Amino acid sequence: MDKKLTNIQERKLREAQARREHIIDVVKDLIKKGGARAVSIRKVAEAAGFSTTVVYALFRDKATLIAQAMDKDLLELVRAMRTACASSDDPWQRIALVGRAYIEYGFQHPDEYSLIFMELRPHAEIDAVEVEHGNIEQDPYAYALHLFTELAQAGQVRQDEPALHTMTQVFWQSLHGLVSLRIVMDAGDPWTPHPEMNAHIDDLLAVVTAGIRLRFAPAS
């Protein structure tokens, strides 16, 4: 009897997970067609073929729906960043390797990148998503902050927390600027010339890291 109940419970869990994945696919499709504003519990339920009750049973609100649609892509981004810098122990080179991996991820996955970083949306509670806030193995910002903390520990930059966050955000913002502009103003745009990509990435990373090194040098 207990075994039968266990089997039933396992089947229900599999069915719930399949519904969750289907709903997330629907959310992504709606966002691609009309942005986050096109997403509502009612529209998602209709497109997925479920009642709103089913959707609410799996996701607490619209913000959670959209946030969980980004979970897998965020984890993939962190995986790419971590893999890229695993080959080096030099803290500055690790920063550059991670920066290039971030940019390449954006170019290789423009739809996913746009959903995560270029779509105005409601913000879900931290505990509503799979990605663990502050976990360097899951949270892209936390991982980048970790790398700048390594620089501070090596005596290369200031160690105070506000400076570390500023360095992380300046670095991230520079990467995002290149990726987002290239996505929106692609090679077919006649208004903006496109430098050769590898050289462009190298120049951006060199300028940004040199600027950070100078601006946030530790006190002598």
Automatic annotation (TrEMBL):
A Pfam family reported for this protein in Swiss-Prot or TrEMBL: TetR_C_33
Keywords (A to Z) from UniProt: DNA-binding, Transcription, Transcription regulation
Keyword Lipoprotein assigned: no
Domain of life: Bacteria
Residues of the DNA-binding region: 40-59
Record-linked Gene3D superfamilies: Tetracycline Repressor, domain 2 (1.10.357.10)
Domain HTH tetR-type: 17-77
Presence of the UniProt keyword Transcription regulation in the record: yes
Record-linked PANTHER family: HTH-TYPE TRANSCRIPTIONAL REGULATOR BETI, HTH-TYPE TRANSCRIPTIONAL REGULATOR RUTR
Stated name of the protein: TetR/AcrR family transcriptional regulator
Classification of source organism: Bacteria, Pseudomonadati, Pseudomonadota, Betaproteobacteria, Burkholderiales
